[in-house]
């Protein structure tokens, strides 16, 4: 997807669920709408109206995804399509790009079986032969088996409907991922996969079966389970490579987007190879529940998702707003979320204003409130366009080693601890990915320090690339590289003489899609005396911009809570500070340090000369 650099994309909510989904669930769901509301049809009809499209434009929304296919079978869902197409065309008239919503992870068997009598064969099954269900409790939604060619063909049939409709600019696949399937088709494919890629002399591949399901948050040392992981990753990536080929051969400009959280986690549950899978999409939606906020003694942040997307050079929409279901968010939350996206390369999203009032009427007061924030964001985009176009100042690199993260829970937690120390000390860092080809050298450009964040599993190629790094190499913790990419222990640690940096014992309370970390103050800033010292409340995040020659040109500081300000070390000169929604003011220096004013949500500091 090519994004016009002169246009600020703002993503809205276009009623992407059919009314039958709400009614079947009967509970509060997307948009905070109760599935048992007697006024549900009234609300749905409003969303399809000209007034709805006009309100989206009024707010500043210029790209949305709207309902199209939920997994109930086209013969059922096509009855709703005339209304969907009318809505999409209305959005186009109001200058809004529309992506057709396509559900990946659901077969609504109570409806779809009428159209597909052998639908039971399309479902993922557990080791006992029972269908796996969506969410663990929605028994009416089977998960589809990605190895079934009929499922692939049917999904292409749905994609063709979207391509032919002449009202969409692309598709958005929701819930991209797969789960362990034990059907005989997958068993056979797994045996062939093991024969092709492994030389296990301790088993006979003709008699193996896919291992039973376990808690994947673990140290994945068993060879056959590692093979199963690689098998499912290849299967899912191949599925979406097929979808991409199908779409692009018919319309190269048709956008392919997917909802796959870009947070470091053990992707074993979803089964996706994060790097290879992401390459199949033009735009990533990252729905991870990491709302910008402070709760339970933890700071929740979307910054790592933005950094990971930049490392992979992918546009990202962080849907970290609780499905748009909570309208009563503090201003600091809204401002920080929008501004971090603006500066971090993400797409700001505003969906809560589309939550209806009880009874089905639009909440016009809330819409005007959110429009106020978006208007100020658009002004900031215009006023700071030159600053936004500059590169990020991120001299510290943090290795993102795919093999370590998917096979070692401890390595994952070490990465999260390192990122937490860097963010809470306002130290500018970037993500440096590595995979089977080694460390991505392009991501090292401008990097003066590279941290290996306690990654227990490193391949020989990655280790060689790390040792060849020309800058300062730091190893966090004591077990980096003790094992190769297959979790085979080396005779000795490969970094005996490398400079070490201690891991702070931050408490990792959650490391799934939701990343919940209890931070404790540490002394990490003292390890980087050459970088500009920032003294702020630890909930703050500093995003530095620099000129092509590496001189700091500006800083965006965000905080999910009201900040009393602080100080930052900057070269003396003409600088301005602007609190979100305020006016530019000269930045005051005292005792050689720039004084950051109190702010709520965001403050921009910019060098004038």
Question: Which runs of at least 5 residues are low in confidence (pLDDT < 50)?
Answer: none
Q: What do the pLDDT scores average to?
A: 93
Strand content: 15-25%
| Highest CATH level, the class of the largest domain | Alpha Beta
> What is the share of helical residues?
25-40%
**Widest β-sheet, arrangement of strands:** 14-11-10-9-5-4-1-15
CATH superfamily of the largest domain: Glycosidases
Total strands: 32
Global outline: globular
> How would a crystallographer describe the biggest sheet?
8 strands, parallel
Work out the count of structural domains. Answer: 3
Q: Quick gist of this model?
A:
This protein is an alpha/beta fold and 609 residues long.
Core attributes:
alpha/beta, 609 residues, six-stranded mixed sheet, Immunoglobulin-like, Rossmann fold, 17 helices, 3 domains, eight-stranded parallel sheet, TIM Barrel, globular
Structure description:
The chain has 609 residues and is an alpha/beta fold. The protein has 3 domains: 11-186 and 236-388, Glycosidases (TIM Barrel, Alpha-Beta Barrel), CATH 3.20.20.80; 396-506, 3-Layer(aba) Sandwich (Rossmann fold); 534-607, Immunoglobulin-like. Helix content is 31%, strand content 23%. It has 17 helices and 32 strands. The strands form 8 sheets. Strands 14-11-10-9-5-4-1-15 form an 8-stranded parallel sheet. Helix 10 (274-278) links the parallel strand 10 and strand 11 (283-286). It starts with 10 loop residues before the first strand and ends with a strand. The mean pLDDT is 93.
